[in-house]
Fold this protein.
Amino acid sequence: MKSDQIRISGGVPGKDSGRLPVPGNVPGKDSGQARVSGETLKKWKKWLRVYEIILFAFVLVVNLAPFLWGLLTSLKPVREVLSYPPKLFGSQVSGEHYAEVFKGTFFTGFLNSLLYSGIAIVVGLLLAVMAAYAMSRFRFHGKKMFFILILSGIPLSIGSAAMVVPNYTFFSSLGMTNQWYTLPIIYIAYNLPMAIWVIMGGLESVPVEIDEAAKIDGAGNWRILFGIVVPLSLPSMASAALYIFLGAWNEYVVSSVLVSSASLYPIQVSIYNYMGFYGIQWGPLCAAATAAVIPTLVVFAILGRMLISGLTAGAVKD
């Protein structure tokens, strides 16, 4: 009798012991909800992807439209540059503006900027890599103060116009204005703190154990730096070189003050010469601006390969 009572109280035999179904555990309900939520998530991801493409296309058009308009204007004949209403494409492709530009002072400024930028990159990288290596590998008196000095000098590359008057006064007192080495010194000084900062970040990814192993094999500090550490930190070196180049190539304010000879003008000052008192020469101006972009694209292509090769080096084990 007791066993029957117990069996009845525990539930009907073969009926899952009389358990009531728990709410939310209905068979098939959870899987259906998961399927619906998964489909909704896929739709949201799809629309988000569409919005990203639209936003990217909008930003691309906004940034490329002025350059493309200037490029097309530089290829129009003189009579069609100021035609109204303006036309996107000219009746024929003309290179007369480029011929005029490269016959004048612009070509001299183009070569000067290549020289100034090249000197700034070589000397700037040499000084930056030595300073960054010393900061990341050695302990010396005044290291913290030197680090603060580097940080405080980084805004110079952004707000160089604020230092025009002090720089002009200082260089004039030394008799160093209007010289071929005036602008390279300025470009190096302005961009060196940022280059040191970038290379210091790259050297942190190189293990110190590599230096110690090289010292055991008899290598000196110079051999370790230029033979081992520098090749292993190519991405940071390329980033620093790119930063120095852009700072030197695009600088206008300081170069227009410290240099007064037309034979020493950089490219940005030479471009500005087509905006005169009697008007703007739109054809030569667009041709000069378009030609000034080409070295930037070339440097981006070269250093971009260094960045990619440096980032992917060692990613795959042999």
Residues 209 and 215 are 10 Å apart (CA to CA). Residues 1-18, 310-318 have pLDDT under 50 and may be disordered. The domain at 97-312 is CATH 1.10.3720.10 (MetI-like fold).
